């Protein structure tokens, strides 16, 4: 029984997602009519009615007490988590025990991240976000909500099954030679060719990468590209997985060949009965009713066909973090084979507009640095000009209130105006434009890489399932994360190879998986409070968690007291507000003359192994795993 | 730490809100506020908090079809209880473990019900102002832990046994045992200056009894607003009784004592069964009586049933140290005894509401609930006399309630006291009558009770949490509370508190019996305890520790009131670990490090936390077998032995 919804301050639902159980429960409670056609608005209404008292109470609490609800839990263990971003309130509900409070909070932050990826800084303004999330046109809205719901479900699926989404770090395929070859190929052949081609229509490939399922084979960034943050890369993997989902089933290597995944998605010629079902779904409420993975696949395929841009060569618009503000990029997902995807990220040129818009964004990111306005006044819209004058009068003039709380409304007003400018420059224009790499250029890129990897494809698919193995008696599982580059290494949990053969399938594997998931959650909870070393003896197992810092040469730096984060802060992770980037920045302040790296190690051992052996294992593991992470990314 | 704790707790809100008083548009929120603490909170803020929280809780509980239990805000959190139209909420700072604040609220409600009976009824009988005083007192009592740790574990404060001659503890235990020879005495405890010396009750009950003690002690033995009319004459020594209300579980626990013995003779316990102490008390009274009292074990239960059921049993005729177990003379007992055949052997390990005795609790609950069912359905006559009917109580009974059944006597003036008792007898007769009736009814429906208990079992299992606090459902279920009497005998700082059957009040012989049998010993014990120097605590070792006994609900620690530096770090880690332990049953031990490492370990019976002081050796936090943090378990084992903590 799950639900997630976004509402603005006037208790208007901007977006919601529910699972079937929740929907049924609501319908039972409200006796919503089951008639076709009437159903959709009625369900939305009942969601609105249900949550309105909570939403209204939230604003009252904020206004009058300066405090706000962050969660409720009931005696039957239903959990409600609330979080306010700007003028938007997010509420996540779980009533089936699958998710903890922490999980729900994370889901909210991920949802927020996804909207940022889709709308950039427009999300900073409640009014503008409302425009984006609730378009007047019902059909358009349904399409958008469906897309968002699908993304949310893809995330939940990955979070539940994929270790890289558990620890929120990108997993790389450990094959240095091939990796290097691919990077070279991407750089010298692919990106160079596209960027020098006349048909690129003003687009420039900045980043190119190849994914095998969710794992990264090779990644190349062009010289004039700004850094692609791990949080964005993870979010992009969600987008790719949403378009071309991998079956994350236990022991699926044999099924890979037979699973008819991406081609089907990519061919806009579904069989007539499927077409039929698409239409039907369009009329039914936009609530997902996934039962088993196979059904989900089918659903997702229809999803793609119904996407806002039915044209497969059209890129998705994504906003990626940069130093100044989220900048729009075009993302092209080219499926090489089922499970293997080439992704190109291009920058759209705005020529003269870009520089000015960028400056404005810098301002709006920290909108108290007003002085920049003075240079930009001439390009202001009149509303922004007015807002600025109003702010200036209040803040700096003698009769004004100065920098007090009373300044907030004018700040807010200015922020809205700035977001409006941002939207005008980036979002609206990009969204509407049909600018894209010529389809034949995309096809060319696809076939080039296909050719290059033809002989490797089967190997890669298998490798992605057995990335790394390590023999330590008594060691059951480990995850090693390099937080400086946002990458992780871990044995697959669902593989039948020697190390983990006993855990390959069935209840034990599932049990271990649960243990690993809870270990990571526990470690993150302690880390949030500042605890960087945790060992636990739980049942028959012994768990370790270590976080430490090194310099570039691998010299281990002295431990520091990590500040404890507030309970209502962002959850520890990279996809959501990038905790580790902040942590590294914090540590670097004390080691300004050297490059600081941050590592984490999670291990699960059998409890019968004496502690000193376990610790020895851990230290050996950390040493051994240090090497693979040295594989150059560029 | 005391200061920070005080600060943290000073921002604590507690309120009781009745939404049924605020139904119409024109009703003001303040009508529904029964109690709000701190009381100097501006009314509009009270209204704001109560209104918003009650509204939002109602909305959530309707959506989830279940009451809200915990509500978090960014800067604080509230433990919540919802029952009928009532809502209790108790706030604390965010870093207090959820389990602690929820326990605290449950204890608070349980305390109120213990002294005042069902909430709705109390507010019919007494004014808001009177009851506000009581809420404030209970709140103050529960939050008055000497360190923050005491509040987190909400433990019973005990005297420091390391500085006391063990013989004194033995003596205290014997006094309690001697009192139990009076069949009307259920169980007792001895307190010295607000700390437990010896108790036969569960920690939860002991805690409740202690409030009364502390309150009377601190108020210079004056008449209190609690309806306690007492203390005429010598202030250094007096006895008093007050009415209290027990939950069916508590009552069962107190009365099942003879069942236990009787049954042990019948059903052979599995040898692997760990024999837990019956009352889990700190006295010797619960050392395995099975072995020593084997003669009494041979008595078949039938013989108990033939015992006279009159409370006026010839107590004086009974020889002291009679092997015949006390308190077997009410029909309810014999009934329970019969039922006991259906208990699993586990059920004999009662004490705290621990997993092992769940079965027994369930049985008793089922039985008692059914008793009410029959009460309700068996016509107006019984209803009006029923203990549990709160509306139709006879006027006499109301009067009695208003007086709290309290009686006092002066040591020097027994005849006065006797007269007084005579006067009260009429009122109390009704009570006895009912008690007998109840027993009869239960006897009739025993069969039904068993079948129903099976149904109840499932539901209980779901909701059951192994806690020391009584099941809140039970406390909140107003109607199930059973009146009982708390007898108190004070000798200066020493208090003997006994839970007795209501008939005790009308039985001057019994009173005298108990009084005389204990007076001399109490005086002696008090003199000894007074002369025992509190013992200056030795220099705190180069380590900090806390040892929590989950069964006795006691805490041993060398964290003093004011803590800073490593102690503060220790308390912080302890809070986190305690919370973790409470969520994850399988977790046995943990080491966590932020600056200095803290080691926590737990078993079914205890939780221990340990921090080694001294400047931590430079380390990187990377996995390293030489890391001193991982030698903590060994150090803890060595160091804590001398504090009587065995971690082996």
Automatic annotation (TrEMBL), chain A:
Compositional bias ranges of the Basic and acidic residues kind: 272-282
Protein name: HPS1 biogenesis of lysosomal organelles complex 3 subunit 1
Keyword Kinase among UniProt keywords: no
Membrane-crossing segments per the record: 334-352, 359-376
Span of domain FUZ/MON1/HPS1 third Longin: 474-627
A cellular-component GO term for this protein: BLOC-3 complex
FUZ/MON1/HPS1 second Longin domain segment(s): 204-346
Record keywords, A-Z: Membrane, Transmembrane, Transmembrane helix
Molecular function terms, GO-annotated: guanyl-nucleotide exchange factor activity
GO biological process: melanosome assembly; vesicle-mediated transport
Location of the region described as Disordered in the Swiss-Prot/TrEMBL record: 259-285
Residues covered by the FUZ/MON1/HPS1 first Longin domain: 2-158
Native species: Cyprinus carpio
From TrEMBL, chain B:
Biased segments, Basic and acidic residues type: 448-466
Record protein name field: HPS4 biogenesis of lysosomal organelles complex 3 subunit 2
Domain CCZ1/INTU/HSP4 first Longin span(s) in chain numbering: 13-117
GO BP term, pick one: vesicle-mediated transport
Native source species: Cyprinus carpio (Common carp)
Phylogenetic classification of the source organism: Eukaryota, Metazoa, Chordata, Craniata, Vertebrata
InterPro entries found in the cross-reference section: CCZ1/INTU/HSP4_longin_1, CCZ1/INTU/HSP4_longin_3, HPS4
Biased composition (Low complexity): 280-298
A GO term from the CC aspect: cytoplasmic vesicle
